[in-house]
Amino acid sequence: MFQHLRSELEIEVPKSNKKLPYVPTEEELKSYYEVVWKAKNFQDMMIVKTLMYTGVRVSELISIKLADIDFHYCQIRINKGKGSKDRIVPFPQTFKELLGMHADSMKKKQATYLFESSWKKKYTDRGIRKILAKYSEEAKLSQNLSPHKLSHFLLTWLKKQGIDDALIQPYSGHESRKSLEG
After folding, report:
1. How far is 76 from 81, CA to CA, in rounded Å?
2. Is the separation of the CB atoms in 57 and 173 below 8 Å?
3. Would you say residue 143 lies in a domain?
4. How far apart are CA 60 and CA 81, in angstroms?
5. Of the candidates 119, 135, 120, the residue with the CA atom closest to the CA atom of residue 45
6. Which domain holds residue 40?
7. Are 115 and 43 in contact (CB under 8 A)?
8. Residue 32 within a domain
9. Which residues contact 47 (CB under 8 A, 6 or more apart)?
């Protein structure tokens, strides 16, 4: 209806410019990680590293089961990710040993999920965001470092390294490479 009125009255509606998402700088990420490291909380450090190295969404992170991790091929199976789709997310070889140590520690506690609280419950989306916000505040960042911003950092960093969009796509969870073009 409004579209019809606009064309009849010859009214043009200016298109809003889409703002690019905030992507933390390497310096901000270094100061953030330094705060996480100094806290000496291994589980929090693993949460941050897993988000940073895989680009998974929080809903995907909290649903990773120990059985979903393939250490031989350095990949994690994401079940019912964005759009209820399953996908495989790679992680760097350099992260394999640390992730393995964390997974072994969780197995000894009879955990099902990669990240569980001391009450043997998987973390909540809100719980993960609170952890990240706490460290953002301690690092005195201008904006909270959300999981989405960590993902954008990873994708931007991979692109700056000259990595082809086809190889970056598994990290993004997007069906099309178009969303990576910019």
Report:
1. 12
2. yes
3. yes
4. 6
5. 135
6. 22-172
7. yes
8. yes
9. 61, 115, 123, 128, 131, 132
d(CA 35, CA 148): 19
For residues 114 and 43, give the distance between their C-alpha atoms in angstroms, rounded to a whole number.
10
Residue at 2 is within a domain: no
Q: How many domains does the chain have?
A: 1
Q: Domain holding 110: CATH number?
A: 1.10.443.10
Tens digit of each residue's pLDDT (9 = 90 or more) over 53-75: 888 889 999 999 999 999 999 99
Between CA 93 and CA 70 the distance in angstroms is 12
pTM for the full model?
0.73
Distance between CA 182 and CA 72 in Å, rounded? 34
- Which sign does the torsion angle of CA 116, 117, 121, 122 carry? negative
In a domain? residue 7: no
